[in-house]
C-alpha cells in the first residue's frame, strides 16, 4: 500500500461512496507505475494515453484475479462496467483529466473487510492522464464503452500461467480489435487535422501490440494471486 493510502481510507470512511451522478471522490495523485516517463499531473501524449487505455485495462484482469484469490469475491464480480467513482487529478488549462480505465469495483469489495485491496483498486481506477479535450470526449468515450462492456471477459484468463493459451490470445485479440474498430470509425468521420493524425498514429501503435505482450504486461499482477 502506498504511504498516502491510510489518509485516503480515513477520508473514505467520512464521505462514503460517491454516487454516479455526484462529484467523484478525489484521491492523491501518483505516478503510473507502468512507466517512469510522466508525472501524473503532466500532460501526456495522446498516443501514450490511448495505448495505456488498452494495456492497463488488460492489467485490470490480473488485478481482479489477485483480489478474487484473497477475498473470495468471484473474479467476474470484482469489477463492473460503469462510471468511475474516483479521480486523482482534475482538468486544467482546457485539458481534460481522462481516466485510463473507466469501470467500477463491486460493492462487495469494502473498505472495512478488504482495506488493502479496496485502496489498491480505488487508486488503480482513479488514475487519470491530462490530455486534450477531444481525446477524452471523442475516442475516449468510445473506449469507455469498450472497457465497460468487456471487463468480465478478462475473468477467463489465468494471469498466473507462464504463457497465454490459444483461447486467452483470442480474448486479448478480440478486445484489441474492438479498440482498432473504434479508431477506424472515429477516423472515418474526421477531416485532415491534428486529431486525425494523432488517432492514426495511436491506431498504428496499438495495432503493433501482440496478445503475448498484453499478457506479459499483466502477468506480474496475476502472480500476486498465488499462494
Beta content comes to: 5-15%
The arrangement of helices and strands along the chain is HEHHEEEEHEHHHHH
Lateral arrangement of strands in the main beta sheet: 1-3
**Average pLDDT over all residues:** 84
Estimate percent helicity: 40-55%
Shape: globular
What would you say about this model in short?
The protein contains nine helices and six strands, in the order H-E-H-H-E-E-E-E-H-E-H-H-H-H-H. It is mainly α and 227 residues long.
Task: Give your account of this protein's structure.
The chain has 227 residues and is mainly alpha-helical. The protein has nine helices and six strands, in the order αβααββββαβααααα. The strands form three sheets. Strands 1-3 form a two-stranded parallel sheet. Strands 2-5 form a two-stranded antiparallel sheet. A two-stranded antiparallel sheet has the order 4-6. Helix 2 packs across helix 8 (194-207) and helix 7 (166-188) crosses helix 9. The radius of gyration is 17 Å and the shape is globular. The two termini are 19 Å apart.
Considering the chains and any ligands shown, give keywords for the structure:
signal, mainly alpha, two-stranded antiparallel sheet, disordered N terminus, 9 helices, 9% strand, two-stranded parallel ribbon, 227 residues
Amino acid at each position: 500500500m502506498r504511504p498516502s493510502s491510510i489518509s485516503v481510507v480515513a477520508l473514505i470512511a467520512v464521505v462514503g461512496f460517491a454516487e454516479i451522478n455526484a462529484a467523484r471522490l478525489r484521491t492523491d495523485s501518483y505516478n503510473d507505475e507502468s512507466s517512469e516517463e510522466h508525472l501524473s499531473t503532466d500532460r501526456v501524449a495522446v498516443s501514450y494515453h490511448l495505448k495505456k487505455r488498452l494495456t492497463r485495462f488488460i492489467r485490470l484482469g490480473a488485478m481482479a484475479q489477485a483480489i478474487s484469490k484473497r477475498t473470495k469475491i468471484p473474479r467476474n464480480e470484482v469489477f463492473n462496467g460503469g462510471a468511475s467513482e474516483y479521480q486523482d487529478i482534475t482538468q486544467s488549462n482546457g485539458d481534460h483529466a481522462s481516466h485510463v480505465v473507466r469501470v467500477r469495483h463491486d460493492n462487495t469489495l469494502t473498505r472495512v473487510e478488504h482495506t488493502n485491496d479496496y485502496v489498491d483498486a480505488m487508486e488503480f481506477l482513479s488514475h487519470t492522464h491530462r490530455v486534450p479535450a477531444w481525446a477524452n470526449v471523442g475516442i475516449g468515450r468510445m473506449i469507455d464503452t469498450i472497457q465497460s462492456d468487456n471487463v468480465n471477459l478478462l475473468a477467463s484468463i489465468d494471469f498466473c500461467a507462464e504463457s497465454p493459451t490459444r483461447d486467452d490470445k483470442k480474448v486479448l485479440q478480440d478486445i484489441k480489435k474492438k479498440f482498432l474498430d473504434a479508431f477506424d470509425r472515429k477516423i472515418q468521420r474526421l477531416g485532415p487535422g491534428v486529431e486525425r493524425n494523432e488517432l492514426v498514429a495511436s491506431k498504428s501503435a496499438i495495432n503493433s501490440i501482440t496478445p503475448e505482450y498484453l499478457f506479459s504486461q499483466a502477468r506480474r499482477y496475476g502472480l500476486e494471486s498465488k499462494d
